[in-house]
């Protein structure tokens, strides 16, 4: 599998942060703040691909072979991101995003053959960089066994850890897919998710969980601005099952974050910093 010609390939897009988008984003993640400054995470709702319907693949994604390489594995997931928030986004901002493919790495794991694709996204307002992100996508082969729905159990509290519980309902998944113009069928088509990709229910979007983590942490930071944020998906989360959001203060200005599934297994890990970024 050789896709060296895709390394360095770029894509550019422009958008405007409108008051309507900001209101819909806040309504989706449960944010009651009223100001022209947007919460962190709204950049995932800007500069979206506007692929025509007849150019979508069977999974609902744009067909591969344009900006993204034609990796032959059928299942695609947003595995992780590392984000720097350098300038808050506000209503009226005209944003420009330049995306660059940085690397493609084949791997073999317990679930079979995979390809990890790393993409750099730089979002600017005028000439000022507002958000820098390194996103990792993973392409996986056909599932050989169907995933099992986690069994819900009561989880014991942990010292020094704050918690919140969210149940990702079908309307929540629908709204976030609409905000991000995401037609990947695993997030809304139960029959497709089960019969084609081996999931027991529609799958909760990774960036939706990341946005909920950001909002959960922001409410506890007493106005401190989030400067760095990273998340990594560990296992799927499913529509209708409760998720437990946790955070604990780390050394300095840091915070460790986790989302636990209903059985106590880790669904997503995360971390953030409110300190100055410096050169790192």
Name the descriptors.
single chain, 4 helices, globular, Thiol Ester Dehydrase, Chain A, ten-stranded antiparallel β-sheet, alpha+beta, 280 residues
Distance between the ends: 34 Å
Number of domains: 1
Q: What is the approximate shape?
A: globular
CATH architecture annotation: Roll
- Strand-and-helix sequence, N→C? EHEEEEEHHHEEEE
**Individual helix count:** 4
Q: CATH superfamily, please?
A: Hotdog Thioesterase
The biggest sheet amounts to: 10 strands, antiparallel
CATH topology: the name is Thiol Ester Dehydrase, Chain A
CATH structural class: Alpha Beta
Strand order of the largest sheet: 1-3-4-5-2-7-10-9-8-6
Pfam families: FAS1_DH_region
GO molecular function: (3R)-hydroxyacyl-[acyl-carrier-protein] dehydratase activity
Organism: Henriciella barbarensis
Protein name: FAS1-like dehydratase domain-containing protein
Structural notes for this entry:
The chain is globular. A 10-stranded antiparallel sheet has the order 1-3-4-5-2-7-10-9-8-6, with helices on one face. Strand 4 (112-125) and strand 5 form a beta hairpin. With 280 residues, it is of the alpha+beta class. The protein starts with 9 loop residues before the first strand and ends in a 7-residue tail after the last strand. The chain has one domain (4-273): Thiol Ester Dehydrase, Chain A (Roll). The model has no long low-confidence stretch (mean pLDDT 90). It has helices at residues 19-29, 170-179, 190-195, 206-218, and strands at residues 10-16, 75-85, 94-109, 112-125, 128-140, 162-166, 228-233, 243-249, 254-260, 266-273. Helix 1 packs antiparallel against helix 2 (170-179). The chain contains 4 helices and 10 strands; from the N terminus they run E-H-E-E-E-E-E-H-H-H-E-E-E-E.
């Amino acid at each position: 599998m050789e896709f060296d010609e895709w390394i360095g390939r770029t894509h550019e897009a422009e958008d405007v942060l409108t008051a309507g988008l900001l209101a819909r984003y806040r309504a989706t993640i449960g944010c009651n703040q009223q100001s022209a400054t947007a919460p962190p995470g709204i950049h995932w709702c800007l500069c979206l691909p506007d692929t025509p319907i007849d150019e979508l693949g069977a999974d609902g994604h744009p067909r591969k072979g344009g900006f993204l390489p034609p990796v032959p594995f059928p299942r695609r997931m947003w595995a992780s991101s590392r984000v720097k928030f350098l300038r808050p986004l506000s209503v009226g901002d005209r944003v420009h995003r330049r995306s660059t493919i940085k690397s493609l790495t084949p791997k073999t794991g317990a679930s079979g053959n995979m390809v990890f694709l790393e993409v750099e996204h730089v979002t600017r307002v005028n000439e000022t960089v507002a958000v820098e992100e390194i996103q990792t996508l993973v392409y996986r082969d056909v599932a050989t066994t169907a995933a099992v729905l986690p069994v819900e159990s009561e989880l014991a509290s942990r010292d020094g850890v704050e918690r919140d519980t969210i149940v990702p309902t079908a309307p929540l998944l629908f709204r976030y897919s609409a905000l991000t113009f995401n037609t990947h069928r695993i997030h809304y088509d139960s029959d497709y998710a089960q019969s084609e990709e081996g999931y027991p229910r529609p799958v909760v979007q990774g960036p939706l969980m990341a946005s909920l983590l950001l909002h959960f942490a922001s409410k506890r930071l007493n106005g401190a601005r989030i400067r760095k944020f990273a998340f990594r998906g560990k296992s799927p989360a499913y529509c209708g099952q409760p998720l437990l959001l946790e955070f604990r203060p780390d050394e300095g200005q840091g915070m460790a974050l986790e989302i636990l599934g209903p059985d106590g297994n880790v669904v997503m890990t995360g971390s953030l910093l409110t300190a100055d970024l410096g050169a790192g």
